[in-house]
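Sequence in, structure out.
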Amino acid sequence: MNSQLIDTSIYADISRFIRDESLRILLEGEVIAVVGYAAGRRKGSVQPIIACDTESAGRLMFSQASVNNLAVYLTKAKKEIPKSGKIGIVLKGCDLKALVGLIGESQLKREDLYLIGVPCSGVLASTVHPATELATETIAPKCLECDAHLPTGCDFVPDVALPPQQKSDLKYAVEIARLEALTPAERWAYWKEQFSKCIKCYACRQVCPFCFCEQCLCDRNKPQMVETTPRPAGNTAWHIVRAMHLAGRCAGCAECERVCPMDIPLNLLNRKMAKELKELFDYEPGFEVNDKGPLASFTDKDDQSFIK
């Protein structure tokens, strides 16, 4: 398939709206800080920032390089977040799904947040070359399967019209179908090969908004739940445990896959789990706050065919 450019002309207007709204809510004292994106040091690069004054708020922007899920900054640093006022945060649709999930799990309170939603045509799959134009061959695969290009339920969403979204092959859906067609032994061999590449850097855990435990059970050594050295058995246990912990919770932001230095298709595993949850329980994370997911609750309508 020939690569086609994706229209990101609205991103300049979105950046202006984000700056204007952030300046307003800071000056009026509605928030004490805004978590957003600003230009990085390299041409075209973007980095997360916490804007606490008009100078830093004036640097806020959005571009195809705004790949980070900023919701992670509200969970990883929740002990350090001041309790003296609201926090503003800039959110793409997939990021908003994560934040909604965190509210449902009582990690955040909606009344403590000011949500700035971003109409998003997509972001880059890789920011090694951040000035790269957004096209069907450079866009993050998750964006081609996204159903949340326009966030809902936010306090502010820039008044811009999204251009028509590109149609393309759905990478994860196609790859899941390919794996499902394999025998169990072939699938196991595939994932063993993938997990064997893991170096246990835990970048996937650190970037995930839902890995908010102060001490991960996989770090414990009395008793040791998962072997900490990067050997096959420990690697497989780590990734299976993590996938199960994210089942019914993962918002599909694919940050784990993006930051993995060994290119393990972690979001493929997450999407497979999401597909199973949809088929078994007709459930998928969205913009509605739910206090319990399907694996944390039981109803009489749940499938009980596994009981022998």
